[in-house]
Amino acid sequence: MSPAPWLDGALVLAQTQDPSGALLPLIYLLAFLGVFIFTFVGFLLFNEGWASYEEKYLEGAERTLDDLFLTIPAQQLLWLTLLCFGFGFVLGWMATTDLIMGLIVGIFGALSPRFALRFQKQRRAKKFNEQLTGALNTITNALRTGFSLPKAFQLIAMDMPKPICQEFGILVQELRLGIEIEEGLDNMLDRLPSQDLDLVATSVTISNEVGGNLAEVFDRIAYTIRERRRIEGRIDALTAQGKAQGMIVSLLPILLGFAINAIDPELMEPMFSTLIGRVALVTCAVMEILGYLMIRKITTIEV
Q1: What does residue 271 show for φ and ψ, rounded to 5 degrees?
Q2: What mean pLDDT, rounded, does the chain reach?
Q3: Options 1.10.287, 2.40.10, 3.40.50, 1.20.81; which CATH number does 125-228 get?
Q4: Going by C-beta distance under 8 Å and a sequence separation of 6 or more, which residues neighbour residue 263?
Q5: CB atoms within 10 A of CB 108
Q6: Which strand (E) or helix (H) includes residue 202?
Q7: This prediction's pTM
């Protein structure tokens, strides 16, 4: 059977109307032109869509890499994403002999670099918050010994470890270019969202507007942050059991599925080869994710 039924119909009609076959070259030519135009238009649409996606992806990737102080070109990150998609697709397809499962695994593979960058950003923000208390103590001591606030920021940029020295180094450069301290702190807050840093920026803005002892202000902020850390640590200890239970309950069906597949692959085969099985797998995955997020929401307490 021909892959194009409409072409078979056209050939039958041509043979009926023109037994000599004089119209066959014209029909083949029109068919070729139709396929060519369809392919060309599809290529243009795909190229335009890919260019738009690539531009948006590179813009976001460059911003994220700059915030993390990574010198990796954004274009290489894009190629890494495509490579992870291809590797995940081949791995999923070879493991299940199913194109749909291959696409699903490929999509997860394509998202893995983004998840890695997000994890790195969260880890960097956590380390910054841990170093902020020591930085505030340094600023307080510097102000009490007669240093100006920009000079105190410069001490942090020179003496403290990463990542806080990197952020305050950018702040010092911005101050040298004539940017106000409030604006520089707001820019730092945009790069690295943090409740503690927001408290520092707000306190500096209020002190510059109404006046006050900045050394005393920073000392009180450092005390507030330490107390918050202590309370958060106690809450984490009390909710650790609930979080562990949520993780175990979420992973148990997945581990059970792998175990059954290893013991009796024929028993699990309908889950991958039939429509009902695939729908059941997707439903289970969605319910697992929703359940884990619900447990995490319950065990997360904001201070």
Answers
A1: -65, -25
A2: 78
A3: 1.20.81
A4: none
A5: 14
A6: helix 195-210
A7: 0.65
